[in-house]
């Protein structure tokens, strides 16, 4: 719909089925005068009125001898600054100054097919642009608490990981089909990790920090040497099926990854060798990991099942599904440090505890009212934290299967990270904030701002002094958390 302004005239006009013209008379006017042909009369339209005109009717003009169609592109342009004949008012309802350019628009009263009076709720909102300007200004005024920001990405950033041995080394991946290896505090030292043809959505360092892997929706994982910054090898899955996540073995150079092709894949990254495919899920494998002792693999899927695998034989030991378990796809899981239990979250708002030995559901954590987005288990306490789109982070006592505290947010929680072995846990949020919570009291200890959009991932540096957050605002930011050790 085209917006025309002439003095105080405010009209919305649009072709309607190539046969009609719609004219809106704003409440900014007391009335609007449309000259009928040959100046026989003046038609007065009241404010907040929509006129439906016959677009095929001829139009009289004071300029030239041709009769262009009513409200043609030329006359629409002229109507922005119309001129009227002597002693007559223009379409704006005012007598124009002498020498005004443009030509007048005249109609027959009979060409007005219908006049519709609008209620207040039907009227256009003239303040939309002002509201947008105010929002833009608010965005510009976001206070930046970050100690460092990395701006190498040119699109949304989805994943980040910190080296387990080098406290300043970070890897990030995003929608620009690239990964970056960069150092906290050094704008000059970074390495672009190229070679992908689609979003880099998952990244991770090996346990010794010598290798880093970037997994993409193009169905490939590129493995890089962190010392030489060279490509070690490319691991391939099914053609056209992207990887949702990847994990390194806790003590070796094995990589597992969950794919859209319903399988879990495993390679030896050091030798660039494919080892096994774990088949059994019937939908995308959305989450998974090695157990901390490295003996088993656990995977969750959009098919609402959890599977426990033997990595040597690729045989499935347990399938968890059905009554008492999730009714919708799994979104996340975490495994207790003793490798005895799995805590899984789902789109159905539920959190369940599963025994790895028996494959049985041994508990349910009830409290969330929307999809579970992240789960993290404390390395110090027998506690688990869960984050949800319902705007809460809940800290649970696993032994009692009870809520310790509920941490309220302004928007949905998208990611979390425990700060080493401390009592503090960080949450990333849709509102762009990173918050630090005291898990003992449930109190908010600190709020870090700086991002202008959703926080997608969090990672804690090896020395525990920094937390890295990445966002759909195309940036990665580093916040000082040394006071929370």
Automatic annotation (TrEMBL):
Subcellular location, record wording: Cytoplasm
Keyword Zinc: no
Gene3D superfamilies: YVTN repeat-like/Quinoprotein amine dehydrogenase
PROSITE patterns, per database record: WD_REPEATS_1 (PS00678), WD_REPEATS_2 (PS50082), WD_REPEATS_REGION (PS50294)
InterPro entries, alphabetized: WD40/YVTN_repeat-like_dom_sf, WD40_PAC1, WD40_repeat_CS, WD40_repeat_dom_sf, WD40_rpt, WD_repeat_multifunction
Spans annotated as Disordered: 117-142
Repeat (WD) residue spans along the chain: 150-192, 193-234, 246-277, 278-319, 323-364, 365-406, 406-447, 448-485
Record-linked SUPFAM superfamilies: WD40 repeat-like
Listed GO CC annotations: cytoplasm
Principal location class: cytoplasm
CDD domains in UniProt: WD40
Superkingdom of this protein's organism: Eukaryota
Keywords, in A-Z order: Cytoplasm, Repeat, WD repeat
Protein name: Anaphase-promoting complex subunit 4 WD40 domain-containing protein
Species whose genome carries this gene: Triticum aestivum (Wheat)
């Amino acid at each position: 719909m085209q917006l025309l302004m002439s003095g105080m005239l405010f009209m919305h006009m649009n072709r309607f089925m190539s046969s009609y013209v719609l004219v809106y008379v704003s409440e900014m006017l007391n009335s609007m005068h449309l000259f009928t042909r040959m100046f026989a009369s003046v038609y007065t339209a009241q404010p907040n009125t929509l006129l439906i005109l016959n677009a095929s009717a001829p139009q009289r003009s004071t300029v030239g001898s041709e009769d262009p169609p009513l409200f043609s592109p030329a006359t629409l342009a002229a109507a922005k600054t119309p001129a009227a004949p002597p002693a007559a008012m223009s379409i704006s309802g005012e007598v124009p100054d002498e020498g005004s350019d443009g030509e007048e628009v005249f109609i027959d009263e009979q060409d007005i097919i219908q006049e519709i009076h609008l209620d207040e709720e039907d009227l256009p909102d003239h303040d939309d642009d002002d509201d947008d300007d105010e929002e833009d200004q608010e965005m510009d005024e976001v206070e930046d608490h970050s100690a460092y920001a990395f701006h190498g990405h040119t699109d949304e950033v989805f994943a980040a990981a910190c080296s387990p041995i080098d406290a300043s080394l970070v890897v990030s991946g995003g929608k620009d089909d690239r990964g970056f290896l960069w150092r906290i505090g050094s704008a000059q030292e970074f390495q672009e990790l190229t070679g992908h043809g689609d979003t880099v959505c998952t990244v991770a360092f090996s346990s010794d920090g010598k290798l880093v892997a970037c997994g993409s929706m193009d169905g490939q994982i590129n493995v890089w040497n962190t010392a030489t910054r060279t490509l070690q090898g490319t691991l391939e899955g099914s053609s056209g099926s992207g990887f949702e996540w990847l994990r390194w073995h806790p003590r070796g150079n094995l990589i597992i990854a969950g794919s859209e092709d319903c399988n879990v894949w495993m390679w030896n990254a050091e030798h660039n060798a494919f080892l096994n495919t774990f088949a059994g899920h019937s939908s995308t494998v959305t989450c998974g990991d090695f157990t901390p002792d490295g003996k088993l693999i656990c995977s969750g899927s959009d098919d609402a099942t959890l599977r426990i695998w033997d990595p040597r034989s690729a045989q499935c030991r347990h399938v968890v599904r059905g009554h008492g378990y999730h009714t919708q796809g799994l979104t996340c899981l975490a495994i207790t440090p003793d490798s005895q239990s799995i805590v899984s979250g789902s789109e159905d708002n539920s959190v369940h505890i599963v025994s790895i030995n028996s494959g049985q559901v041994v508990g349910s954590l009830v409290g969330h009212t929307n999809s579970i987005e992240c789960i993290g288990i404390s390395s110090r306490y027998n506690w688990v934290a869960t984050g949800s789109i319902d705007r809460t982070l809940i800290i649970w006592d696993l032994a009692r299967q009870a809520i310790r505290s509920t941490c309220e947010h302004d928007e949905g929680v998208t990611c979390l990270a425990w700060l080493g072995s401390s009592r503090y846990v960080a949450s990333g949020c849709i509102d762009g904030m990173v918050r630090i919570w005291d898990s003992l009291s449930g109190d908010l200890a600190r709020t870090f701002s700086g991002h202008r959009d959703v926080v997608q991932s969090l990672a804690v540096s090896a020395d525990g002094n920094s937390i890295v957050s990445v966002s759909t605002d195309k940036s990665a930011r580093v916040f000082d958390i040394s006071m929370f050790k």
